[in-house]
Structure formats: C-alpha cells, structure tokens
Amino acid sequence: MRRAFNSVTQVRAQVLGSRGRGPCSAGAQRLAHSCTALVYRQHGAHADVVRMEELPLPAVGPHSVRLKMLAAPVNPADINMVQGTYPILPPFPAIGGNEGVSEVVEVGSGTTSLSLGDWVIPVDAGFGTWRTEAVCDADELIRVPKDISLLGAATIGVNPCTAYRMLHDFVPLCPGDTVIQNGANSAVGQAVIQIAATMGVKTINVIRDRPNRWNLVEELKSMGADYIVTEEGLQSSEMETMFKDVPKPKLGLNCVGGQSGGLLLSHLDNGATLVTYGGMAKKPLPLPAKFLIFKNITLRGFWMTQWKRNNREDLPRLQSMVSTLSGLVSSGQLSASQCVQVPFSLYRQALEATVSSHQRKHILLM
C-alpha cells in the first residue's frame, strides 16, 4: 500500500530522488513546491518539540496529486502522537495532524479519480495535516462535497465516522430502541445524538455535573438528545422513571471508563452490548460478574483508525460512509461541533487549548 508522506525524512528523500516506493517516485528529482509544516523530531510536550518549518515538496507523479490544505483540527490523538503515547507513531521527523480537509490543486497525468478543485480528506491516520501543502497518492484520499461548511468537512473523518460505525456495526438498532452513552458532550457524543435521531433511536446522554450544566443540557437537547442525566442521576430513582417511557438500552457507548463506564453497565438491557472507544478517566472499567452471567452483556472495543485500516482496500465503502455523513451535514441533520478557528501561524494557541480541560475543539486555518 502506498502511503502519503508524513515523515519529513521521507519527503526530503523523495525530493532527492530516492527510489523508495511512494506517491511521487517518478520525476521526483526536481523540486516542485515547498510547504510550511508543524514538525517534531522527538516525543515530548508540544511546546518543547513542535516547530514550524519550511519543507520541500516532491513533484507530482502520474498517480498522485498536490493538495492545498484548507483547515485541520487539533485533536487529543494528535497531541498523544506528539507525546509518544498513541498506538501508532510516524517516524521522525514527523508532521503533526491526522485530520483535515484540502483542495486538489494539481493532478498527476494518470490520475482519474480526482479533479482540480475537489475537496478531499485523508483515508488513514498519520497523514500529517498540519501543513500548508502536501503531495500524496490519489488513493490515499476520499472526496467530500463542497456544499458543506469548511469546518464540517475538516472534522467529518474521525468523530462523526466513529459515531456512525458504532451505531451501525454492533447491535441492530430499530426506531424506538435506546442507546445510552457517557461523555455525551464530546464531539463523538454529539454526533451520536444527531445520527441516532435520524434513525429514530432514543439516546440517554450522561454528562458530568458542572456549573454551566443547564446551558449544556439545552445545547444537547437542541441537537436531538432525548434524555440527559448526570452520573449522580444514574444512581437515582430518575432512571426507574425513565425506563417506564423507553426500553432499556440495547447499546452502551463508553468513552470515559472507570465508575462512569460501570454505571452504564447497570442500566443495559439483557443481552446488550457495551462498546468502549475511549478512557478519559484513565481508570479501569469495573466489571461485576453478574453483568456477564445474569445479563449476558457483551463487551467490545472500537478504534476508528483500525476500522479504516481493516477496510482500506474497500474505498467505495469508506466513500459511501463519508458521503452519507456529508449528506446529513448538508441537510442540517448533523452539525459540526462548535470550534474555535485559529490562524495557522498561531498554532501554539490551538495546541495548548487542546491539552487544557473543557476547551472547544480548535481548528487550524491555513
């Protein structure tokens, strides 16, 4: 499988005419363009290791394209990569960023799947989106329609896709069924609320108690959330009253772990499935034997990056998912999380906000 150039070493080797397999191996001896990129050469705190640098770009080969990056979010996983704690790590020197939207500005002579002006997002993680331009294979990209917002396109490839797959791949859900999730105010949680609403599926959304809780409650309700409870509420008679109106959940979605994840287990229906896709509490999930023995609960894990890699050769399936989600965005049924837009030159502000608690997602604008 050919890969986009994330590693700065790969980029420079290709410009110098390396014969290694890559998107620009033909005719790459001449320097075509350069880009500005956020580069790190060792793992550590972002303030210590990430630097803005000017880098050469290889020429566009027959089956590759040149991209102008338009916008790229800063996600916690991006920071984890810089820190060296993420399960996949690009070789050094590396360009940060896994997600973003770009415009095709040059097309190789043998490329037919993409055209000038197309908006595209990377298929795989580790692409290196924190830069102004890139050259990569055409088959490393998925088109997104240009009739959705720039921020919607920049953030559609990870969180909405995660929500979509979890709602479709683990339990057959029908209108009237119920899903319960913690971390409901996260980007994935908000996407779950909105996508579930289009399916006629009810959502029980767990949030932490906080000073501005009622503002958050109204915000989530405006997205289509059916029930919103605090972790304390999960332990009260409030739940008994709720389950007089809706069936117990067939599916639970856990991104917190610890006690919060354990409380989800106690409210699942017999034979239900709990999917864990995060561990923000950094504490293990308590698992009383009674839930496995007497309620026959199934425990699963999900990682969007692995799903994409498992389905890497089925580009039509990937494209179909992104097209479906883009259609929901275009129709107003799925909105991007509220974001803070940051000029690329002020990248330190975006990185710092991402490691701080309770900050909105920050988007780098190139």
From TrEMBL:
E.C. number(s) listed in UniProt: 1.3.1.104
Subcellular location: Mitochondrion
Predominant place of localization: mitochondrion
All residue ranges annotated as the Enoyl reductase (ER) domain in the record: 44-365
Record key words, sorted: Fatty acid biosynthesis, Fatty acid metabolism, Lipid biosynthesis, Lipid metabolism, Mitochondrion, NADP, Oxidoreductase, Transit peptide
GO biological process annotation, one example: fatty acid biosynthetic process
UniProt feature coiled coil, ranges: none
MF GO annotations: enoyl-[acyl-carrier-protein] reductase (NADPH) activity
CC terms in the record's Gene Ontology section: mitochondrion
CDD domains: ETR
Enzyme class, first EC level, given as a word: oxidoreductase
Family: Belongs to the zinc-containing alcohol dehydrogenase family. Quinone oxidoreductase subfamily.
Name assigned to this protein: Enoyl-[acyl-carrier-protein] reductase, mitochondrial
Species whose genome carries this gene: Conger conger (Conger eel)
Classification lineage: Eukaryota, Metazoa, Chordata, Craniata, Vertebrata
